[in-house]
C-alpha cells in the first residue's frame, strides 16, 4: 500500500545536521529534477529585492527571512522529513512516537508530495523551505505543472500492485493524477463534519482526522487491495465511511465525523 501525503506549510527548521545531499534522497530518479527546482528557487531568493521574491512565493512582503532561508538551502542543516514537517496532519499522525512494525510501515507506505523535492519518504533528510505547489518559478514555471510531468513513473514503481491511498490537498493532488489503468487502485478521502444532520468540510480538522486515520492504519498493519475492502477496513477500525462511485482519479471515500 502507498499512502500519498501533502507536505506541511508549517515546518520546524533543523538547528544542526548535515547539509542537503540530493543524491541521498529516496526516488533517486528525481535527482536531476530536484536540482533544477532547487537552483531556480535559490536563484529567485538570491536577490537584491527580497520583497519581490516574497511576492513570487506567495509570502507577505515582510517575510524576507523566509526568502533568505531559501537562498541558503544548499548549505542549510537537514533533518528527517517527518520532523521538519510540523503542520496539523503531521502533529495528529505523530510519526516520531510510532514504534516497531508501525514505524517500519511508515517508512515503506508513506510518501510526501513536495514542491521542492517531488516525492519524499519520511526518513529523507531535508532542510526547512518555503515553496508551495502553486508558485511559478522563473525558468521552470508552475511547480505543480513541473512535477505533474515527472512523477508518474516513480509513483507506479513504488505502488506496485497495491492500493494507492491519496490524502493530498487539491494543490498537491495535481502533482500526480492516476492514468485510467491505475485509477481503479486509487482511493481519495474527504472528511465531512456532521452536526444535526448537516455536513460540511472543515480544513483544519480534515487534516487532523487524516493524520489520526493514517496512524491507525500504520498501527493495525492491514493493507487492503481494493477500494471496497479499504472502506470496509476503515469501518472495522471504527470510522464512519461512505463509498462513492469510481471516477477518473479513483474512488472517493467520505469519512464522516461528529466530534472534532
Q: How would you portray this structure in words?
A:
This protein has 260 residues and is of the alpha/beta class. It has one domain (2-257). It is built from 12 helices and 12 strands. The chain has helices spanning 31-45, 50-56, 64-71, 81-84, 88-93, 100-109, 143-148, 152-159, 170-173, 180-183, 203-220, 227-236, and strands spanning 2-5, 79-80, 110-114, 118-120, 125-126, 136-137, 141-142, 164-166, 186-195, 198-200, 240-247, 250-257. Strands 1, 3, 4, 8, 9, 10, 11 and 12 form an 8-stranded mixed sheet that branches. Strands 2-5 form a two-stranded antiparallel ribbon. A two-stranded antiparallel sheet has the order 6-7. Helix 1 crosses helix 3 (64-71), helix 2 packs across helix 3 and helix 6 (100-109) crosses helix 11 (203-220). The longest helix has 18 residues, at 203-220. It is globular and about 55 Å long. The protein starts with a strand and ends with a strand. One of its GO terms (cellular component) is cytosol. InterPro entries: YaaA (IPR005583). This is Peroxide stress protein YaaA. It holds the Pfam family H2O2_YaaD.
Itemize the secondary structure elements and their pairings:
Elements: E1 2-5, H1 31-45, H2 50-56, H3 64-71, E2 79-80, H4 81-84, H5 88-93, H6 100-109, E3 110-114, E4 118-120, E5 125-126, E6 136-137, E7 141-142, H7 143-148, H8 152-159, E8 164-166, H9 170-173, H10 180-183, E9 186-195, E10 198-200, H11 203-220, H12 227-236, E11 240-247, E12 250-257
Parallel strand pairs: 1-3, 1-8, 8-9, 9-12
Antiparallel strand pairs: 2-5, 3-4, 6-7, 9-10, 11-12
Protein name: Peroxide stress protein YaaA
InterPro entries: YaaA
Pfam families: H2O2_YaaD (PF03883)
